[in-house]
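Standup notes
- DV: blocked on the single-chain target, sequence here:
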Amino acid sequence: MEKDNEDQKLIKPEWIRGTETIVEKENLRKRIKKVQERDKRIVKAVEKLKKAGIKTLKDEEWEIEDRIVMNEGRIYVPERELRGKIIWLHYDTPVGGHRRRWKTTELVTRNYWWLGVTKEVGIYVDGCNACQRYKNRSEVPVGKLMPDTILEKPWSHILVDFITKLLLAQGYNTILVVCN
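- DV (later): unblocked, structure below
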């Protein structure tokens, strides 16, 4: 009688899919803290600039909270590997949902900041294999390839094309291509 509920599940695993992301974010925060502690120059630079009273670095922009460097209330991420992990958490996980470039950038910049965040998110999103495979195509599908007709005599049909925007060579930047 004591083991009568052993095979019962109250919550199905697919219902709690998002919890793995929450746990991963906490681990990520600890990793960021470790990287920032190893990289003493980040913390020292922010402290020195605040003490010097430089006008370009306002007190409300940069702060140190719980030994983590923050920029405008968002965690500063110094390491490239961690940046990729953050983008992955906001894009590839079921909670992220492959929401394309601008939505992913907005999700990432809610809590994290680094120089060039928009560019890195764009590169990551543009390189997503799943999105490239399942993207809706707006072009009409191309027709079947047709073989070229065999010409009866040479030079009865010619193709002409220009190759432009080349580097200047002896005063020229274009090539004329003629095919028989």
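- Follow-up: The two ends are 90 Å apart (CA to CA).
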